[in-house]
Design a protein that fits this description.
20 helices; two-stranded antiparallel sheet; mainly alpha
Length: 543
């Protein structure tokens, strides 16, 4: 599921607050090797990778008033302790290590929640709901996360609290695995805590990164960080599968689940320790928040008046209305696809482990093939986007993902399904990259925050709605293998029908922008479980 989070301030504000904290970086997801983590943390970043920065005077606390560009008035903040190049290098190392440890947690923990539901005795429908419904809680909290930052007075405090909550959510799973029983409702609540901690930190984390990582090195730095986190996710995924297979062979599968969840909790706590090591300047959030809100309101109203042609320019007003309609139609298509994908997506794990009786080794093999192929394909499609543009990428992906779920009906042979997963990773990468790029290229900045809010809420509702439709189909048809085939076929037909919403949308072929993605989960269907790192956008749509 693509989790989008609007940048909560205009680009000009970023420049102002680089004076406050020209340093850090922290996370919520990505990839790296266990033995590499210590080396990454100890890497000495070369001087040319760290943007030259002015050292503020060593004042304990002093008000900062910086003029925003375009005559939008002053932004008021606070400078705390001096933050210079050495702190920047320290923060970059801490963020890299955070991404690595977070990646291990995703691979060894969240990836096995559905399998755990089955192992502890819950039904196949319950396992599917555990993979989908809890995301709604995280999505709702994501909408209030920026206000929560104001309540706590610091992005860092909110992010650390969310990460700690995510780590602590694994301990009830360890206890349940050791005791051998857990009902569906408590499991849904635990999974909801996990996703609440993960998704609610997303918007503030994006903002935090803008103030932490110097703009000149962001694309290269986040590309390296993403690769590290991706590698760690794969290692955690494979390591967890090997541990579960060993435990299953010795008749101690629940002990195996308790062990992998304990490892996930420890790695997330390790990630929290790296987040806490970031050295950032303090802000006066009460003053800053009020100033941002008044500035954004005035700026947004002024931009919308200009775009609507209220100054007497009728053609501009028509362009504004056309852009608004295009944006809503694009969002409608994306939400429809989300709903159709979720009809089958949460139920691939129970289909493999219960209906096909696959071992944990076979299960993790297919999971890893889809994930790795998508990671590689994202890089490949990323190079192609500069030639063909995001519009073509979205169409290739949108058409390509239509038959993917139905292909699971063709055969239950492991090698055939491995090819299906390989193809799924490639096509979902095209869809995901095209989706993100078209989103940011199509929507002007003045409309982006509102549109992203609409999308986040509608996407979460579609996700849960699709999962409940899938559950109703399985329940109504008796839950056998033929019921799953109907489920997979229904999902493919729904994706095809959703393409009708894409026809006729006047999507302009803009020059492609560059955006780095961070992983928030691993899916058997290889459908999107990433979110964009907004500070890596190399260009922004013209208003």
């Amino acid at each position: 599921m693509p989790a989008l989070a609007p940048a909560p301030h205009p680009a000009g504000l970023e420049a102002s607050f680089e004076l406050e904290s020209p340093t850090p970086t922290g996370d919520g997801s990505e990839f790296g090797h266990l033995a590499m983590i210590g080396g990454i943390a100890g890497t000495a970043w070369p001087e040319e990778l760290v943007e030259p920065l002015e050292r503020p005077s060593p004042v304990t606390t002093a008000p900062l008033v910086a003029e925003l560009p375009d005559g939008r008035g002053p932004a008021v903040g606070t400078i705390g302790a001096a933050v210079g190049p050495s702190a920047t290098r320290s923060n970059l190392r801490a963020s890299m290590a955070d991404g690595a440890t977070f990646g291990v947690m995703v691979g060894v923990g969240e990836s096995y929640l559905a399998a755990f539901a089955l192992a502890i005795g819950l039904g196949e429908i319950s396992a599917g709901l555990v993979s989908s419904v809890p995301l709604l809680v995280g999505g709702v909290l994501q909408l209030i996360s920026l206000r929560a930052v104001g309540w706590l007075g610091s992005e860092k405090r909110w992010i650390v609290c969310c990460a700690t909550l995510q780590a602590m959510s694994f301990f009830p799973l360890v206890i349940a695995a050791l005791s051998g029983s857990l009902a569906l409702v408590p499991l849904l609540m635990i999974a909801s805590l996990y996703w609440a901690g993960g998704l609610a930190s997303g918007p503030p984390w994006n903002t935090w990164m803008e103030s932490i990582v110097p703009s000149r090195i962001r694309p290269r730095y986040f590309a390296r960080r993403t690769r590290t986190s991706q590698l760690c996710t794969v290692i955690g995924l494979v390591g967890g599968g090997v541990a579960l297979q060993w435990a299953d062979n010795h008749g101690r599968v629940l002990l195996g689940f308790g062990s992998v969840f304990a490892v996930a909790a420890l790695f997330r706590l390790w990630s929290v320790s790296w987040l806490m090591r970031h050295r950032v300047a303090e802000r006066d959030w009460s003053a800053t928040g009020r100033r941002q809100m008044s500035t954004l309101t005035a700026t947004g109203q002024g931009q919308q008046k200009t775009e609507r042609g209220e100054g007497g320019v009728g053609g501009t007003g028509r362009r504004w209305l056309a852009s608004e309609i295009t944006g809503m139609r694009l969002l409608s298509y994306l939400v429809a696809v989300q709903a159709m994908v979720q009809i089958s997506g949460p139920y691939f794990a129970p289909y493999m482990l219960k209906q096909l009786q696959f071992s944990y080794t076979q299960y993790v093999t297919l999971l890893a093939i889809g994930f790795i192929s998508k990671v590689i394909a994202l890089s490949w499609w990323g190079r192609m986007k500069h030639r063909d543009g995001a519009k073509r990428l979205l169409w290739i992906g949108g058409v390509g993902i239509v038959p993917l779920s139905a292909l699971w009906i063709v055969s239950d042979n492991l090698y055939v399904l491995a090819v299906v997963q390989l193809l799924s990773g490639i096509l979902w990468a095209a869809y995901e990259l095209g989706f993100f790029l078209m989103f940011f290229e199509t929507l002007p900045i003045a409309k982006r925050t509102r549109m992203l809010t609409y999308y986040n809420l509608a996407s979460m509702l579609a996700l849960c709605g699709g999962a409940f439709i899938g559950a109703a189909i399985l329940q109504g048809l008796g839950g056998g293998q033929s019921a799953y085939w109907v489920l997979f076929a229904t999902s493919s037909v729904g994706r095809c029908l959703a393409l009708g919403l894409l026809f006729g949308i006047p999507l302009a072929s803009h020059p492609a922008i560059t955006v780095c993605l961070r992983v928030v989960g691993v899916r058997l269907s290889t459908s999107p479980a990433d979110s964009p790192i907004l500070s890596t956008l190399s260009s922004r749509p013209r208003d």
